[in-house]
Specification:
Elements lengths: L9 H9 L7 H11 L4 E4 L6 H13 L9 E4 L3 H14 L7 E4 L6 H9 L3 E4 L1 H10 L9 E4 L2 H6 L3 H9 L6 E6 L4 H10 L4 E4 L10 E7 L5 H11 L5 E4 L3 H13 L4 E4 L5 H13 L4 E4 L1 H4 L9 E4 L6 H8 L9 E7 L4 H11 L5 E4 L21 H4 L45 E4 L12 E3 L2 E3 L6
Parallel strand pairs: 1-6, 1-7, 2-4, 2-5, 3-4, 5-6, 8-13, 9-11, 9-12, 10-11, 12-13
Antiparallel strand pairs: 14-15, 16-17
Helix pairs in contact: 2-3, 3-4, 14-15
The structure holds adenosine monophosphate.
Length: 468
């Protein structure tokens, strides 16, 4: 069914067209009619399924025109990045309407947010803390609220916002429409839902525990001391356009970033200790192609929506199996394709099992051909991994041509010779010039060890390995 048959007004159909969407995604097909009909909704849909449009479009339709009184819609988001992104989506979809949306989050001054609220806005998209500030000082009132949306509810509760969320719900008018969007719906969410929603329709898209089919994912076991070397080797051999690397800790993210910069990668860092302007600069730079790599922690990366993240690398296996799905959901969004690699160490068999059990699928364990798994780790320089690897892996040229938003295909690089020490990685193409198989599989990965067919991504033909 096309967008035009979902009951949305022409202004919004034009907004959708301007976004380049052709057909609604499954969550949009199922949620839009419910929201348009005024009913409450609990939707479980994993990240990247198009859930923002699933609520933004029908909500804009229900609002119709701008009204200068207090907000009629409140959207709660767990992170600033997500709040900013959802505000952008509302503005994009509503570009042919006069509806006003305002984002309210911490990390920036109050002035602009306060004046936008005072000028009269239709939709407030907020993180709980700053919203509570505006409610307490009386700048923002919720008496005129018609629709309350809680997005990424599972994450909001994980982040300890449950008390604030309950307080905020209590300040909304009793008669309203309420929508919950959450990747998973554990019992704590059911409990909040019981007092916040009235006779909700439930929509479940796919299984919240599955990884998008469009993503190929694999574990790369390695000894702790060689982790950083393997990361550099994977980046060297992967024809990535933009790669998101996850670290469990902020400190770890900074270290990985520092060392990747030393290995001549252009790197952005995103974590909660960075200032708001640094976070915005990192995200914008990553989106525009100024940075080819972004190192992030789970919380900061929640909701990052960058079209064309071609690869996700879990430098640290996620502590929580659910985060595995969320992290990997950063690539292969809305049916693009993407690859996701997770570095694992021998002590992490339990984490591996937990992830496999959670997603209900075995993840192939692969080895990077040519990587010297028996190498002696060098002095750790206070970091889990070994010392910077660029000397060993060959100097990378600066990717100076990668700014400005484009992703020119990489040129084959001259690799430093490893003078017969057998320490280096396999060249990207076999000596004959034919790309040789570069991934050895064990663990039942379809086609493991065989040459994967080149795939199309972002208009460029790329193989997964060694086929630049
Ligand atoms: P979301 O799950 O809302 O974060 O959306 C994930 C990505 O899918 C975003 O980049 C959206 O712009 C994109 N998207 C959402 N709906 C559609 C659609 N119907 N067709 C194509 N892309 C979409």
């Amino acid at each position: 069914m096309p967008f035009s048959q979902l009951g949305l007004p022409p202004t919004l159909i034009n907004g959708v067209k301007a976004m380049g969407y052709v057909d609604p995604t499954p969550i949009q097909l199922r949620a839009i009619p419910v929201v348009l009909g005024g009913g409450d909704l609990i939707a479980s849909a994993q990240t990247g399924t198009g859930k923002t449009a699933a609520f933004a479009l029908p909500v804009l339709a229900r609002l119709g025109k701008h009204e200068a009184r207090g907000p009629r819609v409140l959207v709660l988001e767990p992170t600033r990045e997500l709040a900013a992104q959802v505000e952008t989506a509302f503005r994009d979809f509503g570009r042919f309407t006069d509806i006003r949306a305002t984002v309210v989050h911490g990390g920036v001054g109050y002035g602009r947010q306060r004046s936008e609220i005072q000028a009269g806005t239709d939709i407030v998209i907020a993180t709980p803390g700053r919203l509570m500030d505006f409610l307490s000082e009386g700048t923002l009132r919720l008496d005129g609220l018609k629709i309350l949306i809680l997005d990424e509810v599972d994450r909001m509760l994980d982040m300890g916002f449950v008390k604030d969320v309950k307080k905020i719900i209590a300040r909304c008018p009793k008669v309203r429409q309420t929508l919950f969007f959450s990747a998973t719906v554990p019992p704590e969410i059911e409990e909040v839902a019981r007092f916040a929603l009235h006779n909700p329709t439930r929509v479940e898209i796919g299984v919240a525990r599955t990884v998008n089919k469009s993503v190929t994912h694999a574990f790369y076991p390695v000894n702790m001391g060689l982790k950083f070397d393997l990361l550099v080797a994977l980046l060297e051999k992967t024809d990535f356009h933009s790669c998101l690397i996850f670290s469990r800790t902020k400190h770890g993210a900074d270290k990985i970033a520092r060392k990747l910069k030393a290995a001549n990668h252009s790197v952005a860092v995103l974590h909660a200790n960075r200032s708001q302007s640094q976070r915005v600069e990192a995200l914008e730079g990553f989106k525009s192609g100024k940075y080819e790599v972004m190192v992030a922690t789970d919380i900061a990366a929640r909701g990052i929506d960058v079209a064309g993240v071609s690869h996700v690398i879990n430098y640290d296996i996620p502590a929580n199996p659910e985060d595995y799905v969320h992290r990997i959901g950063r690539t292969g969004r809305a049916a693009a394709i993407g690859d996701a690699f997770t570095l694992t160490t021998p002590d992490q068999a339990g984490d591996i099992k937990a992830i496999e059990r959670f997603i209900g699928q075995k993840v192939p364990q692969l080895q990077l051909e040519g990587f010297n798994y028996g190498a002696q780790p060098r002095p750790a320089m206070g970091f889990q991994g070994a010392a910077p690897a660029h000397g060993q892996h060959g100097q990378r040229p600066q990717h100076s041509g990668r700014g400005g938003g484009g992703y020119p295909p990489r040129q084959p690089q001259q690799r430093a010779q490893h003078s017969g020490q057998g320490q280096g990685h396999a060249p990207r193409s076999a000596p004959s010039g034919q790309p040789g198989p570069q991934v050895q599989g064990h663990g039942g990965f379809a086609g493991a060890g065989a040459q994967p067919a080149p795939r199309k991504f972002g208009g460029l033909s790329r193989g997964r390995w060694g086929q630049r």
